[in-house]
Amino acid sequence: MLLQDSVTWFKKNNKLERLWLLAKIEFKLRYYENRLGLFWALLKPILDICIYYLVFQIILKQDIPAFASYLFIGLIFYNFFIESTSGTISLLHTKKYLYEYSNMNKLEIYISTLMSNVIGFSFNLIMFMLFYNLIEPESMGLSFYNFWIIPVFVNIFILALGVSLILSNIFIYAKDITQIWQVIATLLLFTSPIFYKLTSFKQALPTFDHLNPIAGIIINARRVMMQGVSPDFSLMLFDYGYACSFLIIGLILLNKIGSKAAEKL
């Protein structure tokens, strides 16, 4: 009965339709002034991969099988998390008009912003699958285990939402959180197994795959998409634990601090 009432309420208020509309507008506006337009959403990660491939495979000679694909999937997950969190730090300020002059609540604004990043992520994941399965000579092909990418992605979406809520509420009182987060983002980039062989990463940073949720999510994404095996459920449990914990903290901050955002900003 409760589930039926919730579905009816969602349909009556057109929540999903409104969130999807806002997400599409946000995604288009992001690339509106670029000459390449929406094509830039696909081109940028490819250019990133070319640069990192040149540095880590050709110059530093990382001995990793299917390194281009290994790099590709690591970067699209990392970029989704960083773009989602960095792009929402000042959200309560830049989109104040939405929660002040419409019936949208603040959480819906966060979700719609992250959904716009999901569109770009989906394009990049499709590009990865085409590259890995049609071009990569060391490809293992499609597998039933590929479907595990859905809970792996849900994991990083919840994590990004939770961290976004925390950062944007801190921004109300401390604007320099933007610069601090840029430093942390760089730290996460080089303390995740994006460029390095997993065995080397674990030897250099023991247990860090469990301490860094981004590392765990990337490891599981590669397992299900490139190795044709199920995710490491112990690692996934840790990562979901981190994600849910950050989300709960973020929701508490949104309720306590975010309610005063309009008058503070």
Automatic annotation (TrEMBL):
* Stored InterPro entries: ABC2_TM, ABC2_TM_bact-type
First-listed, main subcellular location of the protein, grouped into a coarse class: membrane
Q: Which Gene Ontology terms of cellular component type are present? A: plasma membrane
Q: PROSITE patterns from the entry?
A: ABC_TM2
| Record's keyword annotation contains Transmembrane | yes
| Gene Ontology biological process | lipopolysaccharide transport
Q: Does the keyword Transport apply?
A: yes
Localization annotation: Cell inner membrane; Cell membrane
Molecular function, one GO term = ABC-type transporter activity
Q: State which residue ranges cross the membrane.
A: 36-55, 67-93, 114-135, 147-173, 180-198, 233-254
List UniProt keywords, sorted A-Z.
Cell inner membrane, Cell membrane, Membrane, Transmembrane, Transmembrane helix, Transport
The segment(s) forming the ABC transmembrane type-2 domain are: 36-257
Q: How does it sit in the membrane?
A: Multi-pass membrane protein
The UniProt family comment states: Belongs to the ABC-2 integral membrane protein family.
PANTHER family linked: INNER MEMBRANE TRANSPORT PERMEASE (PTHR30413), TRANSPORT PERMEASE PROTEIN (PTHR30413:SF8)
Full protein name: Transport permease protein
Q: Which organism is it from?
A: Rufibacter glacialis
